[in-house]
Specification:
- About 40% of the residues lie in helices and about 20% in strands.
- It is of the alpha/beta class and about 450 residues long.
- The chain folds into 3 domains: about 1-75 and about 215-230 and about 425-455, ATPase, nucleotide binding domain (Nucleotidyltransferase, domain 5), CATH 3.30.420; about 80-215, Response regulator (Rossmann fold); about 250-425, 2-Layer Sandwich (Nucleotidyltransferase, domain 5), CATH 3.30.420.
- Helix 4 runs parallel beside helix 5 (about 170-180), helix 8 (about 235-250) crosses helix 16 (about 430-435) and helix 16 (about 430-435) packs antiparallel against helix 17.
C-alpha cells in the first residue's frame, strides 16, 4: 500500500493521524489513528506517536514512509495573538477578523494608544504573534507609530505583523531596526484601507506563514516539526480553507466545529443584498468566531451551567444522582453511558456559538424617528450547515444535534428562515483537506464530498 500523504491534527484533547493516497488521480482516505493529546504530559509528540501507531496497526504499513507529511495544530491554546488598532469598531475589528480567519485565538485586543498596564500585560503574556493595525491609508498616523515604538521597545523577540496605514510602513521598519527587532517584523496590506472596506486576505496568509515559521511553542512541538516535511498551519485556518472549498459546491454555508475546549463557527456568505445595505459596519465574506468557553470536555462545566442541572436531568430523563455520577467520571472520549449527556452539551454549545456568530437587527433613533439597521454577520442565505470535530464526526446521527441546535436559536438572529441541509464530516478530515489543498487542490474537494456522503 502506498501513502501519498500523512496529515497530523493536534487538537486540545485528541490527536489524529490521517493517511491519504492517489491525491493526484483518484484521491482516497485510507484510515485514521487517534490518541489523547499529551500537552499536559509535557510533550505533544507522545500523543502524536500513539496516533501514528494506531493508524499503522489499522493499515498494516509504516505510515511514516508517506511521500509527504503535514500537520495542523490547536494544542496548548493554538495560535495565540494580540491585535492593537486605532478605533475598535473599525481597524481593530478588521485586524480581529484577519486573525480569527487565519485560525488564531485572540488573547488581547486594544484600541488607541497602549498604556503602561497594557504593555505590562503584553510583555508577560504567552502570545505567539502581535498584530499592529490602525488608520486608513493616508489617514491618521501617530497612534500606530507610538504603539509600534512601545511594542518594539519591549524587545519580546516574537513576530509582529504590521497591517495599518501604508504611509507608516517605512517608519515602522526604522522603529524595529532601531530596537534590533527587524527580524521579527512582517509588513502586509492595510486590513482597513478605506472607511467600511475590509482587506484581510493577505494578512491571513501572512499570519499562517509566520505561524509555520515560528511554530507554536507547545511542549514537544519541535519534535513534530522534525517529522513534518511540509506545511504546518493552525487547525481552525485549515477548517476555514475546507469551508471555502465546499462553498464552491454548495454556495453559502456554515461549518460548526465542536472541540474539547472551544466551539468554532466558520461562515462563507455575502448575505442578503437588502440586509447588506442595512449593515452598520462591514462584515467579512469569510468569517470565523471562536467560543473559548464552549467545549465539551475542558469547558463542559460552562455548558452544564447554561443548561442548569435541573433542566439537564429533565431532558435526559436522568436522576440527579445519575447526572452527578456521569460528570464525576467524565472522559475525553465518551463511553456509552456518557454519550447522551455529550449530545445535549453539543446542542447547547452549537446554539450559543451560532447565536454569537450571527448578526441581528437593531434600532437607532434620529431626527426622523426610529430606523432599523442590521449589525453583525448575515446568515440568512445559508444553504448548508456542516458539522465537524470529534463530537459531530463520531456520534451517530449527529445531523440531529445540529438541527436541534438550530431549532433553538433565538429568532431575532440573522439566520436562514428556509430549510437548510445538515451534513457531517464523517471521516473527520476537514482540517486535513484544508491543509492538503495548497499542494493538491484537485484532491481536497473529492475527499470532503466523500466524507460528507459517508454513513
Amino acid at each position: 500500500m502506498n501513502i501519498d500523504a500523512l496529515v497530523f491534527e493536534i487538537g486540545s484533547t485528541t490527536t489524529m493521524a490521517n493517511a491519504f493516497d492517489k491525491l493526484d488521480t483518484h484521491p482516497v482516505f485510507l484510515g485514521q489513528g487517534m490518541a489523547k493529546t499529551t500537552v499536559e504530559n509535557g510533550d505533544v509528540a507522545v500523543g502524536l506517536h500513539q496516533a501514528i501507531k494506531a493508524v499503522k496497526k489499522k493499515l498494516g504499513v509504516n505510515v511514516l514512509d508517506a511521500k509527504k507529511t503535514y500537520a495542523t495544530s490547536s494544542a496548548a491554546g493554538g495560535l495565540k495573538m494580540s491585535v492593537h488598532g486605532l478605533v475598535y469598531d473599525m481597524t481593530v475589528k478588521a485586524a480581529k477578523e484577519a486573525a480569527l480567519g487565519a485560525g488564531a485565538n485572540l488573547r488581547m485586543i486594544t484600541a488607541g494608544l497602549l498604556d503602561e498596564d497594557q504593555l505590562k500585560t503584553l510583555s508577560s503574556s504567552t502570545i505567539n504573534i502581535i498584530m499592529i493595525a490602525g488608520g486608513v491609508d493616508y489617514g491618521e498616523r501617530k497612534t500606530t507609530l507610538r504603539n509600534a515604538e512601545s511594542i518594539a521597545a519591549l524587545q519580546l523577540d516574537i513576530p509582529v505583523i504590521y497591517a495599518g496605514n501604508i504611509e507608516n510602513q517605512k517608519a515602522i521598519q526604522r522603529i524595529f531596526e532601531k530596537n534590533n527587532q527587524s527580524d521579527h517584523l512582517f509588513i502586509t496590506n492595510n486590513v482597513y484601507p478605506k472607511i467600511d472596506v475590509l482587506d484581510v486576505s493577505e494578512a491571513r496568509t501572512i499570519i499562517q506563514a509566520v505561524f509555520e515559521k515560528h511554530i507554536v511553542r507547545a511542549p514537544g512541538m519541535e519534535k513534530v516539526r522534525d517529522i513534518v516535511s511540509e506545511t504546518i498551519i493552525p487547525t481552525p485556518g485549515a477548517v476555514m480553507e475546507a469551508t471555502k472549498i465546499l462553498y464552491g459546491v454548495y454556495g453559502d454555508l456554515i461549518t460548526l466545529d465542536i472541540g474539547g475546549a472551544t466551539t468554532d463557527v466558520h461562515s462563507v456568505t455575502a448575505g442578503n443584498k437588502k440586509i447588506q445595505d442595512m449593515l452598520l459596519a462591514p462584515e467579512p465574506f469569510e468569517k470565523r468566531t471562536v467560543e473559548g468557553d464552549l467545549g465539551v470536555f475542558v469547558n463542559k462545566d460552562n455548558i452544564v451551567d447554561l443548561w442548569t442541572k435541573h433542566r439537564l436531568t429533565q431532558t435526559l430523563e436522568w436522576t440527579a444522582a445519575s447526572l452527578e455520577s456521569t460528570l464525576d467520571d467524565y472522559k475525553e472520549i465518551p463511553d456509552s453511558r456518557q454519550i447522551p449527556l455529550v449530545r445535549k452539551l453539543a446542542v447547547m454549545a452549537l446554539k450559543i456559538a451560532v447565536e454569537r456568530h450571527a448578526g441581528t437587527y437593531t434600532s437607532l433613533f434620529g431626527p426622523t424617528g426610529r430606523t432599523t439597521y442590521a449589525e453583525g454577520k448575515d446568515l440568512t442565505e445559508i444553504n448548508v450547515a456542516v458539522g465537524t470535530g470529534g463530537v459531530l464526526s463520531r456520534l451517530e446521527n449527529s445531523e440531529s444535534i445540529i438541527k436541534e441546535a438550530f431549532d433553538g436559536i433565538a429568532k431575532d438572529r440573522l439566520i436562514p428562515a428556509k430549510t437548510i441541509r445538515f451534513l457531517v464530516d464523517h471521516d473527520y478530515i476537514m482540517a486535513s483537506a484544508g491543509v492538503l489543498y495548497k499542494d493538491h487542490p484537485n484532491a481536497a474537494q473529492p475527499l470532503l464530498l466523500q466524507s460528507l456522503a459517508r454513513r
